[in-house]
Amino acid sequence: MTINLYVIGQWLGYGTIALAVLTLLGFVLQWGIRFRMVGITSFMAVLTGGVFSLYLGLFTQTSVAGSVRYVVTYDTGATQVVIAVPPTIAPSEVEPTLRQAASNLFSPGRLGRGQTQLNIRMRTILHPQPGVSQLVYLGEATRSLATRDDAQMDIQVYPDKLALLPQPKE
Q1: Over the stretch 27-69, which tens digit does the pLDDT of each residue have?
Q2: Is 167 part of a structural domain of the chain?
Q3: What is the distance between the alpha carbons of residues 83 and 104, in angstroms, rounded to a whole number?
């Protein structure tokens, strides 16, 4: 299910405008609930502003050519993140995916707790035998917690672990 915050914000905006018109009408016609309408209209304006802010904040996602979809499986909200990728990932897709994750997971609100680096590890799960799962870390990216465009980002790919991935059938 995808949430379109733009459409939700648009409808909340229409509702806020409609309530503002009703509130003005309430003051003109001396309705007994006119002061309650001020509170309701104000609350709707705050909701509309909040949804609009979420809409703006959630669209700082970048796309790196050659990357694949990943899922964040662990995030401390501070300095450690683990992302999961499918076991069908090609070795050439590991570095772009780590770059994309490092860019998308940057947030100035992350707590450093004395550390200055965000560490993002990429993993997949292999099934060498039925009923057996093997967790394999394919690489990691280390980036600054302070600057969005980190020129000193360090990306490490583990070739020995990539060799464990199933080879595509030709």
Answers
A1: 999 999 999 999 999 999 999 999 988 877 665 677 888 889 9
A2: no
A3: 12
